């Protein structure tokens, strides 16, 4: 029986709440109007609460990669060096951005699915005097793995001129992250993940240390010029035309997070993640990550099976869009998202469809319903 609904269980874009869709459909505001200024300033304050920072929070019209590029182009001069943690596709992106802007990437290679050790970061800094930053993912989305950014932040408190720049695109809104307390100088996220808004907005926060660095680096970006944006956004404006409807929608999504409470949001994501992991294990499958994230679960496919086929069958025959692997993991894993506008029934549906797809493709080493049963037992225990 063909499904009549489509569901999105990818690690971005994620499903959008009805309240946010309604806000998105409101008449477009002029980006220089008093009405938009009010919404924009309120949205920046709501973002500060989600990021738990007193730093400068800027909204950019771009994907999260735009904020990553802005961090590199605005905070490093050509010839500077930065330690780059590469443990997945998005760690590679940091490396590529550094190379694009003439920044020397001191690469710390991490096996995909494993977390970087803080001792490796320390060694890279000490062996490369003059390093100006450490670039890392809080959650490496391509492998569903969390890095211990808190420990890295503690380490960097002993280095006055080294910035901690953290891609939290699939971490903020999943975890309750005290950005300032952890020593994250620059935090990055995007609208289309746990912030429950369609793609198109990036967020970057800069603390005092990062703003001091900003003043020492010569301008190398026109559109992603953070000095211009700070000046304008403090007044409730942006340097250039912004996606006003998306800002209004993000404002509504942030209010939903605020109403639920950040601590409750984090607890919900933890339970959803644990239930997904228990369900997957009940099918006799292995997780890729040794330190799995609460926003997305990466699962190794059975021997001899193409993970891309699992993704195809789930989408074409059951109306559920999940994600496959990237780079050398393509065909070897599939990824189930449980971030943002997700509840227990979305997780159960994702597991059910995983079972259908596996059976259809010839994997029969489980009883129908075993993943759902395991997840339901977890939900029953955790409440």
TrEMBL record:
It comes from the Bacteria. Substrate binds at residue 335. GO terms for molecular function: alanine-glyoxylate transaminase activity; L-serine-pyruvate transaminase activity. The keyword Acetylation does not apply. GO terms for biological process: glycine biosynthetic process, by transamination of glyoxylate. Its cofactor is pyridoxal 5'-phosphate. Residues 10-327 form the Aminotransferase class V domain. Belongs to the class-V pyridoxal-phosphate-dependent aminotransferase family. This is Aspartate aminotransferase-like enzyme.
């Amino acid at each position: 029986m063909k499904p009549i609904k489509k569901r999105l269980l990818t690690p971005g874009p994620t499903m959008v709440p009805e309240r946010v869709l309604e806000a998105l459909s409101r008449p477009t505001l002029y980006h220089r109007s008093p009405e938009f200024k009010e919404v924009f300033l309120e949205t920046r304050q709501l973002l500060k609460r989600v990021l738990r920072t007193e730093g400068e929070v800027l909204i950019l019209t771009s994907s999260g990669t735009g904020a990553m590029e802005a961090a590199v182009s605005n905070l490093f001069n050509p010839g500077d060096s930065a330690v780059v943690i590469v443990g997945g596709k998005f760690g590679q992106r940091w490396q590529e951005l550094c190379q694009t802007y003439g920044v020397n990437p001191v690469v710390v290679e991490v096996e995909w699915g494993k977390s970087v050790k803080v001792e490796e970061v320390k060694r890279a800094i000490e062996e490369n005097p003059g390093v100006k930053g450490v670039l890392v993912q809080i959650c490496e989305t391509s492998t569903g793995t969390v890095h211990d950014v808190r420990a890295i932040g503690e380490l960097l408190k002993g280095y006055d001129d080294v910035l901690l720049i953290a891609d939290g695109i699939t971490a903020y809104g999943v975890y309750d992250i005290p950005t300032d307390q952890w020593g994250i100088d620059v935090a990055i996220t995007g609208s289309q993940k746990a912030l429950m808004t369609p793609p198109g907005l990036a967020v970057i926060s800069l603390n005092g240390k990062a703003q001091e660095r900003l003043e020492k680096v010569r301008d190398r970006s026109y559109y992603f010029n953070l000095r211009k944006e700070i000046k304008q956004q403090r007044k409730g404006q942006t340097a250039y035309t912004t996606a006003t409807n998306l800002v209004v929608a993000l404002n509504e999504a942030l209010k939903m997070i605020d109403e639920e409470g950040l601590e409750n949001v984090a607890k919900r994501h933890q339970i959803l993640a644990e239930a997904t992991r228990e369900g997957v294990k009940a099918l006799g499958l292995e997780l890729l990550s040794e330190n799995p994230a609460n926003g997305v679960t990466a699962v190794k496919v059975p021997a001899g099976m193409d993970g891309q086929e699992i993704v195809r069958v789930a989408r074409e025959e059951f109306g559920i869009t999940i994600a496959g692997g990237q780079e050398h993991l393509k065909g070897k894993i599939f990824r189930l998202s449980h971030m943002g506008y997700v509840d227990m029934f979305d997780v159960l549906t994702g597991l059910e469809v995983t079972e259908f797809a596996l059976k259809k493709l010839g994997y029969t080493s489980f009883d129908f319903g075993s993943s759902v049963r395991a997840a339901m037992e977890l939900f029953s225990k955790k409440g």
